[in-house]
Amino acid sequence: MQNEFKGKVALITGAAGAIGKGVAIKLIEGGATVFITDLKEDMLDTVCQAIGCSGLAADVTSESQVKAVVDKTVETHGSIDILINVAGIIGTSPLEDITEAAWDQMFDVNCKGTFFFTKYVVPVLKEKRGGKIINFSSKSGKTGSALMSHYCAAKGAIIAFTQALAFELAPFKINVNCLCPGITDNTGVWDTCSRGYIEDLKLSREEVIKNFTAKIPLGRLAEVKDVASVTVFLASGGSDYMTGQAINVTGGREMH
Predict the structure, then answer these.
(1) SS3 of 177, please?
(2) Does the domain spanning 9-182+223-248 belong to CATH 3.40.50.720?
(3) Domains of the chain, residue spans
(4) What's the whole-model pTM score?
(5) Which active-site residues does the annotation give?
(6) At 41, is the pLDDT very low, low, confident or very high (cuts 50, 70, 90)?
(7) Which residue among 4, 125, 208, 251 has the highest number of C-beta atoms inside a 10 angstrom radius?
Protein backbone atom coordinates (compact mmCIF):
# COMPACT_ATOMS: atom_id res chain seq x y z
CA MET A 1 0.00 0.00 0.00
CA GLN A 2 2.87 2.34 -0.71
CA ASN A 3 1.49 5.88 -1.24
CA GLU A 4 -2.07 4.56 -0.76
CA PHE A 5 -2.58 7.25 1.85
CA LYS A 6 -0.60 10.10 0.31
CA GLY A 7 -2.41 13.37 1.07
CA LYS A 8 -4.59 11.74 3.75
CA VAL A 9 -4.69 12.78 7.41
CA ALA A 10 -5.42 10.13 10.03
CA LEU A 11 -6.33 10.76 13.66
CA ILE A 12 -5.69 7.77 15.92
CA THR A 13 -6.74 7.49 19.57
CA GLY A 14 -5.03 5.23 22.09
CA ALA A 15 -1.92 5.43 19.95
CA ALA A 16 0.61 5.11 22.76
CA GLY A 17 -0.48 1.48 23.05
CA ALA A 18 0.89 -1.34 20.94
CA ILE A 19 -2.00 -1.60 18.47
CA GLY A 20 -2.51 2.14 18.01
CA LYS A 21 1.20 2.61 17.45
CA GLY A 22 1.28 -0.31 15.03
CA VAL A 23 -1.56 1.19 13.00
CA ALA A 24 0.11 4.61 12.98
CA ILE A 25 3.36 3.14 11.66
CA LYS A 26 1.61 1.31 8.82
CA LEU A 27 -0.33 4.42 7.80
CA ILE A 28 2.82 6.53 7.80
CA GLU A 29 4.53 3.88 5.67
CA GLY A 30 1.60 4.22 3.27
CA GLY A 31 2.12 7.96 2.96
CA ALA A 32 -0.42 9.26 5.48
CA THR A 33 0.05 12.21 7.78
CA VAL A 34 -0.78 10.98 11.28
CA PHE A 35 -1.91 12.77 14.43
CA ILE A 36 -2.16 10.69 17.59
CA THR A 37 -3.59 11.01 21.07
CA ASP A 38 -3.44 9.08 24.33
CA LEU A 39 -3.93 9.77 28.01
CA LYS A 40 -0.31 9.83 29.19
CA GLU A 41 1.68 12.69 27.73
CA ASP A 42 5.12 11.17 28.34
CA MET A 43 4.22 7.94 26.54
CA LEU A 44 2.59 9.88 23.71
CA ASP A 45 5.65 12.08 23.25
CA THR A 46 7.86 9.00 23.10
CA VAL A 47 5.75 7.47 20.33
CA CYS A 48 5.59 10.75 18.39
CA GLN A 49 9.37 11.01 18.42
CA ALA A 50 9.84 7.34 17.55
CA ILE A 51 7.58 7.23 14.51
CA GLY A 52 7.70 10.86 13.36
CA CYS A 53 4.23 12.27 13.89
CA SER A 54 2.47 14.93 15.94
CA GLY A 55 0.03 14.44 18.80
CA LEU A 56 -1.75 15.84 21.81
CA ALA A 57 -2.46 14.09 25.11
CA ALA A 58 -6.11 13.93 26.17
CA ASP A 59 -8.61 12.05 28.31
CA VAL A 60 -11.10 10.49 25.88
CA THR A 61 -13.85 10.78 28.51
CA SER A 62 -13.56 14.60 28.53
CA GLU A 63 -15.59 16.19 25.75
CA SER A 64 -13.62 19.43 25.89
CA GLN A 65 -10.28 17.61 25.65
CA VAL A 66 -11.52 15.49 22.74
CA LYS A 67 -12.69 18.60 20.89
CA ALA A 68 -9.28 20.18 21.51
CA VAL A 69 -7.55 17.17 19.90
CA VAL A 70 -9.78 17.30 16.82
CA ASP A 71 -9.33 21.06 16.52
CA LYS A 72 -5.55 20.71 16.88
CA THR A 73 -5.43 18.02 14.20
CA VAL A 74 -7.28 20.25 11.74
CA GLU A 75 -5.22 23.28 12.74
CA THR A 76 -1.95 21.37 12.28
CA HIS A 77 -2.74 19.35 9.16
CA GLY A 78 -5.66 21.16 7.51
CA SER A 79 -8.26 18.42 7.71
CA ILE A 80 -9.03 14.83 8.74
CA ASP A 81 -9.76 11.95 6.37
CA ILE A 82 -9.54 8.93 8.68
CA LEU A 83 -10.54 8.46 12.33
CA ILE A 84 -9.41 5.33 14.13
CA ASN A 85 -10.83 4.89 17.63
CA VAL A 86 -8.43 2.48 19.30
CA ALA A 87 -8.54 3.85 22.87
CA GLY A 88 -10.10 1.43 25.32
CA ILE A 89 -9.73 -0.46 28.57
CA ILE A 90 -10.44 -3.99 29.72
CA GLY A 91 -11.18 -5.59 33.06
CA THR A 92 -11.89 -9.01 34.49
CA SER A 93 -14.05 -9.62 37.53
CA PRO A 94 -16.94 -11.78 38.71
CA LEU A 95 -20.21 -9.94 38.17
CA GLU A 96 -20.93 -9.52 41.87
CA ASP A 97 -17.58 -7.81 42.38
CA ILE A 98 -18.06 -5.21 39.62
CA THR A 99 -18.69 -1.85 41.23
CA GLU A 100 -20.81 0.90 39.73
CA ALA A 101 -17.63 2.95 39.30
CA ALA A 102 -15.93 0.11 37.39
CA TRP A 103 -18.98 -0.35 35.16
CA ASP A 104 -19.17 3.38 34.43
CA GLN A 105 -15.46 3.65 33.68
CA MET A 106 -15.67 0.74 31.25
CA PHE A 107 -18.42 2.47 29.29
CA ASP A 108 -16.89 5.93 29.62
CA VAL A 109 -13.55 4.98 28.08
CA ASN A 110 -14.73 2.44 25.50
CA CYS A 111 -18.03 3.98 24.43
CA LYS A 112 -18.12 7.64 25.43
CA GLY A 113 -14.60 8.18 24.12
CA THR A 114 -15.53 6.68 20.74
CA PHE A 115 -18.71 8.76 20.69
CA PHE A 116 -16.94 12.04 21.49
CA PHE A 117 -14.23 11.64 18.85
CA THR A 118 -16.73 10.56 16.22
CA LYS A 119 -19.05 13.45 17.09
CA TYR A 120 -16.34 16.06 16.47
CA VAL A 121 -14.71 14.43 13.44
CA VAL A 122 -17.93 13.75 11.52
CA PRO A 123 -18.55 17.43 10.62
CA VAL A 124 -15.07 17.56 9.08
CA LEU A 125 -15.77 14.43 7.03
CA LYS A 126 -19.21 15.66 6.00
CA GLU A 127 -17.67 18.85 4.67
CA LYS A 128 -15.25 16.75 2.61
CA ARG A 129 -18.09 14.46 1.50
CA GLY A 130 -16.14 11.36 2.42
CA GLY A 131 -13.90 9.61 4.89
CA LYS A 132 -13.29 6.50 6.95
CA ILE A 133 -14.14 5.81 10.58
CA ILE A 134 -12.79 2.62 12.16
CA ASN A 135 -13.91 1.72 15.68
CA PHE A 136 -12.48 -0.96 17.91
CA SER A 137 -14.82 -3.54 19.37
CA SER A 138 -13.69 -7.05 20.31
CA LYS A 139 -14.40 -10.70 19.81
CA SER A 140 -16.04 -10.34 23.22
CA GLY A 141 -18.44 -7.79 21.76
CA LYS A 142 -19.96 -10.60 19.69
CA THR A 143 -19.70 -13.58 22.02
CA GLY A 144 -19.53 -12.88 25.73
CA SER A 145 -16.63 -14.03 27.86
CA ALA A 146 -16.79 -15.15 31.47
CA LEU A 147 -15.59 -12.67 34.10
CA MET A 148 -15.81 -9.80 31.57
CA SER A 149 -19.49 -8.87 31.52
CA HIS A 150 -18.94 -5.10 31.69
CA TYR A 151 -16.26 -5.22 28.98
CA CYS A 152 -18.41 -7.41 26.72
CA ALA A 153 -21.39 -5.09 27.16
CA ALA A 154 -19.34 -2.02 26.24
CA LYS A 155 -17.76 -3.66 23.20
CA GLY A 156 -21.15 -4.92 22.03
CA ALA A 157 -22.37 -1.32 22.18
CA ILE A 158 -19.52 -0.27 19.87
CA ILE A 159 -20.78 -2.69 17.21
CA ALA A 160 -24.32 -1.29 17.40
CA PHE A 161 -22.97 2.28 17.33
CA THR A 162 -20.92 1.45 14.24
CA GLN A 163 -23.90 -0.05 12.43
CA ALA A 164 -26.15 2.91 13.25
CA LEU A 165 -23.58 5.39 11.98
CA ALA A 166 -23.02 3.37 8.82
CA PHE A 167 -26.65 4.02 7.88
CA GLU A 168 -26.60 7.64 9.03
CA LEU A 169 -23.38 8.65 7.28
CA ALA A 170 -23.63 6.65 4.05
CA PRO A 171 -25.22 9.58 2.16
CA PHE A 172 -22.05 11.55 2.88
CA LYS A 173 -19.79 8.76 1.53
CA ILE A 174 -18.40 8.13 5.01
CA ASN A 175 -17.62 4.47 5.67
CA VAL A 176 -17.95 3.28 9.27
CA ASN A 177 -16.63 -0.14 10.24
CA CYS A 178 -15.18 -1.77 13.32
CA LEU A 179 -12.67 -4.43 14.24
CA CYS A 180 -13.30 -7.33 16.58
CA PRO A 181 -9.85 -8.63 17.48
CA GLY A 182 -9.25 -11.70 19.55
CA ILE A 183 -6.57 -11.78 22.20
CA THR A 184 -3.55 -9.93 20.85
CA ASP A 185 -0.16 -10.79 22.28
CA ASN A 186 2.24 -8.14 23.58
CA THR A 187 -0.44 -5.57 24.32
CA GLY A 188 -1.55 -3.88 27.51
CA VAL A 189 -5.02 -5.36 27.07
CA TRP A 190 -3.66 -8.92 27.04
CA ASP A 191 -1.41 -8.20 30.02
CA THR A 192 -4.41 -6.96 32.00
CA CYS A 193 -6.67 -9.76 30.82
CA SER A 194 -4.19 -12.56 31.48
CA ARG A 195 -3.33 -11.14 34.90
CA GLY A 196 -7.02 -11.11 35.78
CA TYR A 197 -7.50 -14.71 34.71
CA ILE A 198 -4.37 -15.77 36.58
CA GLU A 199 -5.74 -14.21 39.75
CA ASP A 200 -9.40 -15.18 39.35
CA LEU A 201 -8.91 -18.72 38.04
CA LYS A 202 -5.71 -19.50 39.99
CA LEU A 203 -3.87 -20.57 36.86
CA SER A 204 -0.31 -19.95 35.72
CA ARG A 205 0.32 -17.61 32.77
CA GLU A 206 1.37 -20.60 30.67
CA GLU A 207 -1.88 -22.42 31.49
CA VAL A 208 -3.94 -19.35 30.60
CA ILE A 209 -2.21 -19.00 27.21
CA LYS A 210 -2.60 -22.75 26.54
CA ASN A 211 -6.32 -22.59 27.37
CA PHE A 212 -6.88 -19.66 25.05
CA THR A 213 -4.85 -20.92 22.09
CA ALA A 214 -6.59 -24.31 22.30
CA LYS A 215 -9.80 -22.54 21.23
CA ILE A 216 -8.25 -20.83 18.20
CA PRO A 217 -8.31 -22.80 14.91
CA LEU A 218 -5.09 -21.15 13.69
CA GLY A 219 -3.41 -22.16 16.93
CA ARG A 220 -1.92 -18.88 18.15
CA LEU A 221 -2.76 -15.52 19.65
CA ALA A 222 -3.09 -12.56 17.31
CA GLU A 223 -0.06 -10.36 16.77
CA VAL A 224 -0.17 -6.57 16.58
CA LYS A 225 0.64 -6.72 12.86
CA ASP A 226 -2.43 -8.91 12.24
CA VAL A 227 -4.75 -6.31 13.72
CA ALA A 228 -2.92 -3.33 12.24
CA SER A 229 -3.04 -4.77 8.72
CA VAL A 230 -6.82 -5.18 8.75
CA THR A 231 -7.27 -1.73 10.27
CA VAL A 232 -5.21 -0.16 7.51
CA PHE A 233 -7.23 -2.05 4.89
CA LEU A 234 -10.44 -0.59 6.33
CA ALA A 235 -8.87 2.87 6.09
CA SER A 236 -7.90 2.32 2.45
CA GLY A 237 -9.73 2.63 -0.84
CA GLY A 238 -9.97 -1.14 -0.95
CA SER A 239 -12.80 -0.99 1.58
CA ASP A 240 -14.87 1.66 -0.21
CA TYR A 241 -17.82 -0.72 -0.64
CA MET A 242 -17.79 -1.85 2.98
CA THR A 243 -19.69 -0.13 5.77
CA GLY A 244 -21.38 -1.22 8.99
CA GLN A 245 -19.16 -4.29 9.25
CA ALA A 246 -17.65 -5.80 12.39
CA ILE A 247 -14.58 -7.62 11.12
CA ASN A 248 -13.18 -10.53 13.14
CA VAL A 249 -9.41 -10.82 13.56
CA THR A 250 -9.46 -13.90 15.76
CA GLY A 251 -7.64 -16.72 14.00
CA GLY A 252 -11.01 -18.33 13.32
CA ARG A 253 -12.28 -18.38 16.89
CA GLU A 254 -15.12 -16.01 16.01
CA MET A 255 -16.92 -16.74 12.73
CA HIS A 256 -20.00 -14.54 12.68
Answers:
(1) strand
(2) yes
(3) 9-182+223-248
(4) 0.94
(5) 151
(6) very high
(7) 125
